[in-house]
């Protein structure tokens, strides 16, 4: 055959093949014109399977031509080359459609990497592939690693900076979510605690397999490194290495308190007062300090003295913030052979309510972190309460200016057993403070022929505790800065008044709330009072209204006169304005500031109200919903019955206001034995359900709060501890014992508790004394 003939023959063959293909031969890869091939994912999409495990159902794809199922078509399944993927049994990746056009894949098994991905199915001539969405899930927890938090160091009794973070993975290193991880610290020695004061805590892993522990706080034992173990069922554990630092830091606290001495005869009474500064290290050890003591008129072998504080211990529960502070002095007339014991209840790390707790006396006050020992300067207001030489109750209040060593522009009021003096001028000399910030103010306001000499201890530049150290009066109080403000009637807005007498004849208390009209200089509101000494109990939430003014707008010296008084015989008050940025209860607190100090200048015919002093606090929030959370509370109870006239007991407690119930637990000092068998006791409880006043928002009553009123030692019904409360804000409230039998009265604060992280804690206090219920 020649070449020409051979070429013609090949052309004929190619034409014949082309004709056959166009007639629909099943082996062709071309689609004739007007025919549409489609492939869809029929079943198997959306499945999940653990890594290394087969998916429950195969992948089924359907092929159609012009909508009609196509049989005998080869379908190819394709999987991702890396990452989350899987494999078909036997390595097969194709399947042929049956008479229904369905191609069923071999068994498909998840790979070793968790995650979501797509498997595609394609067919010859199809314009687009079908897609199956699949997910490989992590397997069982197999290993835990310490991701972060290991290697930290924290000061003893302080929180570590970062939480402990652990990551849980399966045997293929995929993160496992929803796993409970248990963090366990050593049960003894150098260690720490999680929230709830426990050495064990749990946390669940998130979608990334990460579990984060609660905050972890070093205990009071230095040392390390020690190990906190993170564990989970079926997984190897992880270790976190931590160290408790023994570096010692110190903090100065300014304190003051006053109350009644425990004299041999139950009918006798005497004022005792303490003010000073104590230095406490981060282990809870007292390493220094200084205090002034006034035991009026040497009734128990003292009078005034300035004494060093040479030792002692702070022992506080780190969760509740309640415990004891011992102070060792060289004065055998103070405490027990020179060792004083105080009960303390921390509101936050810089502020605590305190009371004497050694049975030799009972008193109440507060303790605050000292932030300044510099010389005093600026404008101040002050109040003091105590005894004159008779002895009879006396109170002082007023304003003054300090510049260098000179006190000028002094204006003061006094109420001495019902004899009142107002608008009196005074000057004085101020000494340079020592290393604890202590100094003296000499030749200040005078009473009779003797000038008053005061010792002062600053909390900060605008908060000072002052105590009388001469031999004429015995008194204690505070002075607060006025900033650079000029005061007008507009400086006093909606306010809560808290006023208390002293244990000596002027045994009374009052609470009120009111709004002001600064243009008219008037106020209207409601109040409650209990004049135990005068035998007067006011009506509940009775009208309280009148006028007020600041007669000296430069130094905030003013007065308030009640023409309609819910407060019984209380109708005339001296008011002395303070810096609006200054919190009078908690001087280191940057919120809740302003208001004024108050001195009772009333002179009722039924008896004296001298010695009464208190505060006006701005009422910034009276919503019921704000009165929730943890609180620290205190009271100074003055009481009277047949076997104990003019007696006192005190309490500091901590607890919570939740679901409408107030529950407190704390310490009681009762050296007179007015209701308790023990002189001092711990674990005492007080519970009740404060009922909000629907008309006077911010006022609550808790009447008959205790179903079993206490009886005095002689079996006579003593008191039921019915109370009313007034709310300046959710952070600051006051309560008044509204005793219908006129045998008891107290006024005290309730302060919302903040963070206690960082308290210098040596050890938890041991609670061995009897408990009482209130």
Strand order of the largest sheet: 53-52-51-50-60-59-58-55-54
Gyration radius over CA = 40 Å
Structural class: mainly beta
Separation, N- and C-terminal Cα atoms? 128 Å
Number of helices: 1
Largest sheet: 9 strands, antiparallel
Average pLDDT figure: 87
Strand content is over 45%
Number of strands: 60
Provide the helix percentage.
under 10%
What general outline do the C-alpha atoms trace?
A: elongated
Compact description:
With 774 residues, the protein is mostly beta strands. The protein is built from one helix and 60 strands.
What's the structural blueprint in terms of helices and strands?
Layout: H1 3-22, E1 37-43, E2 48-50, E3 60-65, E4 68-69, E5 74-78, E6 86-88, E7 94-96, E8 102-104, E9 108-110, E10 115-122, E11 130-137, E12 143-148, E13 153-155, E14 165-169, E15 180-184, E16 192-193, E17 200-204, E18 210-212, E19 217-218, E20 223-231, E21 238-245, E22 250-261, E23 271-281, E24 286-295, E25 304-311, E26 314-316, E27 322-329, E28 339-348, E29 351-356, E30 361-369, E31 378-387, E32 393-403, E33 406-416, E34 419-430, E35 439-442, E36 446-447, E37 450-451, E38 454-460, E39 463-468, E40 474-481, E41 495-500, E42 508-517, E43 522-531, E44 536-537, E45 542-552, E46 557-564, E47 572-577, E48 596-600, E49 613-618, E50 629-641, E51 644-658, E52 661-669, E53 680-688, E54 691-692, E55 699-702, E56 710-711, E57 717-719, E58 723-727, E59 732-737, E60 744-752
Parallel strand pairs: 2-11, 13-21
Antiparallel strand pairs: 1-3, 3-4, 3-8, 5-7, 5-10, 6-9, 10-11, 12-14, 14-18, 15-17, 15-20, 16-19, 20-21, 22-23, 22-30, 23-24, 24-25, 25-27, 26-27, 27-28, 28-29, 29-30, 31-32, 31-40, 32-33, 33-34, 34-35, 35-38, 36-37, 38-39, 39-40, 41-42, 41-49, 42-43, 43-44, 43-45, 45-46, 46-47, 47-48, 48-49, ...
């Amino acid at each position: 055959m020649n070449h020409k003939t051979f070429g013609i023959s090949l052309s004929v063959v190619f034409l014949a093949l082309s004709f056959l293909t166009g007639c629909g031969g099943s082996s062709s890869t071309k689609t004739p014109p007007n025919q549409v091939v489609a492939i869809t994912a029929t079943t198997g999409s959306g499945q999940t399977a653990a890594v290394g495990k087969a998916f429950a159902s195969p992948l089924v794809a359907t092929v159609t031509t012009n909508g009609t199922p196509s049989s005998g078509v080869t379908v190819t399944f394709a999987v991702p080359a890396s990452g989350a993927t899987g494999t078909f049994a036997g390595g097969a990746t194709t399947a042929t459609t049956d008479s229904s056009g369905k191609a069923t894949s071999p068994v498909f098994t998840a790979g070793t990497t968790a995650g979501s991905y797509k498997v595609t199915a394609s067919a010859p001539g199809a314009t687009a592939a079908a897609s199956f969405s699949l997910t490989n899930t992590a397997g069982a927890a197999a290993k835990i690693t310490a991701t972060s938090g290991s290697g930290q160091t924290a000061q003893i009794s302080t929180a570590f900076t970062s939480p402990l973070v652990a990551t849980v993975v399966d045997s293929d290193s995929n993160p496992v979510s929803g796993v409970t991880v248990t963090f366990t610290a050593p049960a003894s020695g150098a260690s720490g605690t999680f929230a709830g004061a426990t050495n064990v805590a749990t946390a669940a892993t998130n979608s990334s397999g990460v579990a984060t522990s609660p905050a972890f706080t070093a205990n009071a034992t230095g040392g390390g490194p020690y190990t906190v173990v993170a564990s989970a069922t079926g997984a190897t554990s992880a270790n976190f290495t931590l160290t408790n630092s023994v570096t010692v830091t110190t903090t100065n606290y300014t304190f003051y308190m006053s109350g009644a001495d425990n004299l041999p005869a139950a009918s006798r009474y005497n004022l005792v007062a303490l003010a000073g500064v104590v230095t406490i290290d981060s282990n809870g050890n007292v390493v220094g300090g200084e205090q002034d003591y006034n035991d009026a008129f040497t009734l128990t072998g003292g009078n005034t003295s300035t004494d060093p504080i040479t030792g002692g211990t702070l022992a506080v529960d780190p969760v509740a913030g309640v415990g004891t502070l011992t102070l060792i002095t060289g004065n055998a007339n103070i405490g027990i052979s020179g060792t004083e014991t105080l009960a303390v209840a921390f509101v936050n790390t810089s502020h605590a309510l305190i009371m004497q707790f050694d049975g030799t006396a009972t008193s109440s006050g507060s303790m605050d972190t000292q932030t300044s020992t510099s010389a005093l300067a600026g404008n101040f207001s002050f109040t003091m309460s105590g005894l004159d030489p008779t002895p009879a109750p006396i109170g002082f209040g007023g304003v003054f200016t300090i510049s260098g060593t000179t006190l000028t522009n002094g204006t003061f009021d006094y109420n001495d057993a019902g004899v009142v003096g107002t608008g009196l001028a005074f000057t004085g000399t101020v000494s340079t403070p020592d290393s604890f910030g202590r100094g003296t103010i000499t030749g200040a306001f005078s009473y009779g022929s003797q000038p008053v000499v005061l010792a002062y201890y600053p909390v900060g530049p605008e908060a000072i505790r002052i105590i009388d150290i001469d031999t004429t009066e015995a008194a204690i109080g505070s002075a607060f800065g006025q900033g650079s403000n000029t005061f007008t009637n507009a400086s006093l807005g909606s306010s809560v008044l808290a006023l208390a007498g002293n244990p000596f004849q002027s045994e009374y208390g009052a609470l009120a709330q009111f709004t002001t009209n600064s243009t008219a200089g008037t106020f209207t509101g409601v109040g409650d009072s209990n004049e135990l000494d005068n035998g007067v109990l006011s009506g509940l939430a009775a009208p309280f209204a009148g006028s007020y003014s600041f007669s000296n707008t430069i130094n905030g010296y003013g007065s308030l006169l009640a023409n309609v008084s819910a407060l019984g015989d209380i109708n005339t008050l001296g008011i002395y304005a303070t810096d609006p940025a200054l919190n009078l209860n908690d001087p280191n607190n940057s919120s809740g500031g302003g208001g004024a100090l108050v001195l009772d200048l009333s002179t009722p015919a039924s008896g004296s109200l001298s010695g009464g002093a208190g505060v006006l606090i701005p009422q910034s929030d009276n919503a019921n919903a704000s009165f929730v959370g943890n609180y620290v509370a205190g009271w100074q109870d003055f009481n009277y019955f047949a076997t104990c006239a003019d007696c006192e007991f005190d309490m500091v407690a901590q607890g919570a206001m939740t679901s409408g119930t107030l529950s407190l637990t704390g310490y009681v000092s009762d050296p007179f034995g007015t209701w308790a068998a023990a002189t001092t006791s711990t674990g005492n409880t007080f519970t009740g359900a404060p009922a909000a006043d629907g008309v006077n928002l911010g006022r609550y009553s808790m009447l008959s709060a205790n179903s079993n009123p206490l009886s005095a030692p002689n079996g006579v019904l003593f008191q039921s501890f019915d109370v009313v409360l007034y709310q300046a804000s959710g952070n600051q409230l006051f309560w008044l014992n509204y005793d219908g039998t006129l045998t008891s009265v107290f006024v005290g604060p309730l302060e919302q508790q903040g963070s206690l992280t960082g308290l210098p804690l040596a050890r938890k206090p041991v609670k061995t004394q009897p408990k009482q219920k209130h």
